[in-house]
Design a protein that fits this description.
The chain has 4 helices and 21 strands. It has 421 residues and is mainly β. The protein starts with 14 loop residues before the first strand and ends in an 11-residue tail after the last strand.
Length: 421
């Protein structure tokens, strides 16, 4: 979520979004309801999409559900610096259950002691519970500390639900677990330094994933034994370039001996088009390098002489453009390498990599406003492309899916919401 602190000479030219990640300064103000309580600035924002989701083929499904995130923030000066408290919640676990919503070729997370495939796992009931302290040290530079019981480490791009280029698209990218899946870590501490154009940061965090038996928070075996670092550069108000590295320890609940390195980079742009309209784009590359234990090595690789490591990469390009103020048009293209294990296969070489691709597009139009809440009606369709080796699994090489949704979000653009650090 975006920081509420007003800009100053010591704050960056970009804007803080989810966790401590940056988006271009030219992005439109966050829609939020904001109040002043003495020295505190309070803000409430978020979005909820009531959806009908239909994914074709025998690996798909149909579901009426809810995709949501509610955010509360409290911000105030602290000496010459700034303090910000954040909380983010979701009702997805309660409404759609622990297996999440249908989405072809999506992977990641566990349900009933098995990997989730062709579905997007629900978010935990608490998605963020964190504090951010920012302290200027010299003209044009500041130190910051971010700490949370639940929060986002410096690993990955801006989380997809917070990106301006994906703001009106309710579905998660199928490369989510190659890019920004650590955004709801149960324990994180990040320290960093920023100037107006450059930010350097490092985190220690708990990478262990939750499951359906712990729908709100999951601190089982929680340890700050994973690490990450990220550099972000904002050479102009319309551009942010970021790159990151992370080491994830015991992140998989089904095999806690597995380790992983994650690498990636992103480019975000924001282009005002006049009349309050905006074109937002994001391009992301992400790679996972898995390290297996001796036991899982034999199961996954089928032989003691095979390499205990395998890597896979992802690419994403997405955009959102305002049309005549009330209509938003969005599109996304992805290419991801996924293994048989990730796709839920039960036999053979589970590390065999499959090259899968998705093209999706949609639009959302504001239908009405009541009590400062915009009501939007939206639709999203996706065409998936799988290799010939998966024809029998999906029954077609071009499985399709679509969402119809009614989205609620604040209609008020806060003067404070989306300010830099």
């Amino acid at each position: 979520m975006a920081s509420m602190q007003p800009s100053s000479a010591a704050t960056p030219g970009a804007m803080t979004m989810s966790g401590t990640s940056w988006i271009p300064d030219s992005s439109q103000p966050m829609r939020a309801h904001t109040w002043q309580a003495n020295a505190w600035t309070l803000s409430a924002h978020g979005a909820a999409s009531l959806s009908y989701d239909e994914q074709r083929t025998k690996r798909g499904g149909r579901q009426f559900g809810l995709i949501d995130g509610e955010m509360l923030m409290a911000s105030r000066p602290m000496g010459s610096g700034h303090l910000e408290l954040r909380a983010m919640t979701s009702l997805e676990q309660s409404v759609i259950g622990g297996s999440g919503y249908p989405e072809l070729l999506q992977t990641g997370g566990t349900y009933r002691h098995a990997v989730i495939h062709d579905r997007q796992h629900p978010h935990a009931g608490v998605m963020e519970l964190a504090a951010l302290v920012d302290q200027p040290i010299v003209a044009g530079a500041a130190l910051f500390l971010y700490a949370g019981l639940v929060g986002e480490p410096s690993a990955g791009p801006v989380a997809y639900m917070h990106r301006p280029s994906a703001e009106f698209d309710p579905a998660a990218p199928i490369g989510h677990h190659w890019q920004d899946a650590s955004h709801g870590s149960f324990g994180v501490v990040t320290a960093g330094l920023h100037t107006r154009t450059l930010q350097l940061e490092a985190s220690t965090f708990n990478a262990r994933e939750a499951d359906e038996t712990h729908p709100v928070v999951d601190f089982r075996d929680a340890k700050l034994d994973s690490y990450s670092g990220r550099v972000s550069w904002a050479p102009a108000s319309r551009l942010v370039v970021s790159s990151w590295w992370a080491y994830l320890s015991s992140h998989e609940r089904l095999d806690t001996t597995t380790r992983m390195h994650r690498y990636g980079a992103s480019v975000m742009t924001s282009h005002p088009l006049g009349g309050g309209r905006l074109l937002s784009t994001t391009v992301i590359w992400g790679m996972n390098l898995h390290h297996h234990s001796g036991a899982s090595h034999l199961v996954l690789h089928g032989g003691p002489d095979a390499s205990p490591h395998h890597h896979s990469s992802s690419m994403l390009a997405e955009a959102n453009v305002s049309v005549h103020g009330n209509t938003q048009v969005f599109a996304r293209a992805e290419r991801v390498q996924k293994s048989g294990e990730e796709l839920g296969f039960l036999g053979g070489d589970l590390t065999e990599s499959y090259d899968i691709r998705v093209i999706s597009a949609g639009a959302a139009r504001r239908m009405t406003t009541f009590s400062a809440i915009d009501v939007l009606l939206g639709a999203r369709g996706a065409v998936n492309f799988v290799p010939a080796s998966l024809l029998a699994t999906y029954g077609t090489r071009t499985p399709v899916g679509f969402f119809l949704y009614l989205q609620l979000r604040p209609s008020v653009a806060s003067a404070h919401g989306m300010a830099a650090h």
